[in-house]
Amino acid sequence: MGKIADIGVFGGSGFYKFLDNIEEVKIDTPYGEPSDALFIGKIGDKKVAFMPRHKRDHSIPPHKINYRANVWAMKEAGCKCVISPCAAGSLQKHIEPGSFVIADQFIDWTDGRITTTIDGPNVIHPSAADPYCPELRKLAIETGKELGIKTHETGTVVVVNGPRFSTKAESKFFTSQGWEVINMTAYPEAYLVKEMDMCPLNISLITDYDAGLVGDVPPVSHSEVIKVFNNNLDNLKKLLFTMIEKIDFDSMTCDCHTTSQVSGA
Length: 265
Hints:
The chain is built from five helices and eleven strands; from the N terminus they run E-E-E-E-H-E-E-E-H-E-E-H-E-H-E-H. By secondary structure, the protein is an alpha/beta fold. It has a single domain (7-261), classed as Rossmann fold. Strands 1, 2, 3, 4, 5, 6, 7, 8, 9, 10 and 11 form an eleven-stranded mixed β-sheet that branches. Helix 3 links the parallel strand 9 and strand 10. Helix 1 (67-77) packs parallel to helix 4.
């Protein structure tokens, strides 16, 4: 397949509606069927490939997503970077619902997911010490500030398996570790992007405080979560469109494109 996109975006099922003149492209992968087709559109002079990670009808739970196929489809489409917005809960009182966290670290608390494309016989050990692209993170932070969006510049996202939420005890443990964000899809999605030599970026949309903070902060109602989520979608659109127009691949000096060439043993 020839290059059909510059930038990939994973997200909720409605995001492709933000784009005009959409072309739907189905991609077969060596890892099976992706969650959905790629929806190809333009933002400024960039071609963008969007995929709803839960499928367009939101029928795939987080632990059943074929992350390898999804990311491979982005690579096959020619994407140089992949942006992964995700709805998330806050584990710390200063990370308020309605704000964004540009994660710089993740903790894998999942179970049973296939998390790598390195199946042998050639075995390498890519570093995940700094799992997100530093240049995309900087651009996202600067853009958030420019737009007046409350944006936290760092944060560790702990990824749980889902579909259940954490117990209060689990959530309190995560909070006690100093981690800021909890989510069900951030791993292995962004790591696979890096493993396949593309630049990964996580944008966590904080919709509520997690269960361990009940008692310290007012409990959030379902209607309030939906309200915050919808407001975040509008801000997400502004953030994504503005930063995507600013991305200059020619000036980027990150080493994300060499991840698969580095062996630790």
